Amino acid sequence: MKNRITELFKIEYPIIQAGMIWCSGWELAAAVSNAGGLGIIGAGSMYPEILSEHLTKIKAATDKPFAVNLPLLYPSIEEHIQSIIEFKVPIVFTSAGSPKTHTARLQSHGIKVVHVVSSVKFAVKCQEAGVDAVVAEGFEAGGHNGREETTTLCLIPAVREAISIPLIAAGGIGSGKSMLAAFALGAEGVQIGSRFVCTIESSAHDSFKQRIIQSNEGDTKLMMKNLTPVRLLKNEFYGEIEKAELSGASNEKLAEILGRGRAKKGMFEGDMVEGELEIGQISAYLDDIKPAGDIVREIWNAFLAEKKRIAEM
């Protein structure tokens, strides 16, 4: 396929793997890029020296385009940007901050910049800031999310009407059918997270992967909306947060419960009791763990098959 997203990123398929903390290292990103999509290294959970290590390894593992996800709320942003420039990373996805902050600087080094938003208002701000493309992420998504609780079905067409730059849909997308639906709503590419957590190459702990494929409908919920909205799988830690929120706990108390390293404890180290387990609603419909390249090809082939079926109706 040739469209504005494939041309912008120089990729074969407009399928983008999300840059998820603790789950998307160089191995997953390289596998997705080698299969024709766009792989992303999730830098949010990395110290500067770790990001440099991942960039060194992905350069050796693929000659295809790849990206780095840079959540602007995390520390070490300046060091990460220096590494991104030094390693000549071609594409950066920024999130959780103002798109104005680093876009022009990154673009001055020939880097394409994409910003992730959860509302029409911020999509417009991204276009005004000069980003190359926008990811509009619906309420179904895992990890850090928007307070508006706008679903992908509502968000994508509204953002499409509001901006003219390339648009990527995210949130609840994990198959060729949902990819085609996103395109019908006005997207030109899809960003997929949860489906790629359940891959052989994902750096997520095996216990987390198994917990995902065992999950059922209703097993995730958006929590901590007043502090930092995040969609979580229900476990004992989730229960503690829910109890605190229902009792009217302050943001300070919620931050105290959250503590430090909770996401690493759950998703990377495999503590299914006390860890923070970030995943999207689509997790209820995932039932296997397979190579990332197989998933890219399956989604693309299902997209084409569904497109043909609809055309013949």
Describe the structure.
- The chain has 313 residues and is α/β, with parallel strands linked by helices.
- Helices cover 42% and strands 15% of the residues.
- It is built from 14 helices and eleven strands.
- Strand 2, helix 3 and strand 3 form a beta-alpha-beta unit.
- The longest helix has 20 residues.
- It is globular.
- 51% of the residues are buried.
CATH architecture of the largest domain: Alpha-Beta Barrel
Structural class: alpha/beta
Q: How many domain regions? A: 2
Distance between the termini: 22 Å
* Contiguous helical run count: 14
Mean pLDDT: 95
CATH domain fold name of the largest domain = TIM Barrel
Low-confidence spans: pLDDT under 50, at least 5 residues? none
Side by side, the strands of the main sheet go 1-9-8-6-5-4-3-2
Under CATH at level 1, the class of the largest domain stands as Alpha Beta
In CATH, the homologous superfamily of the largest domain goes by the name Aldolase class I
**Shape by Cα distribution:** globular
* Rg estimate, integer Å: 18 Å
Strand content: 15-25%
DSSP strand tally: 11
Helix content: 40-55%
- N-to-C SSE series? HEHEHEHEHEHEEHEHEHHEEHHHH
The biggest sheet, with number of strands, parallel, antiparallel or mixed sense and barrel status, is: 8 strands, parallel
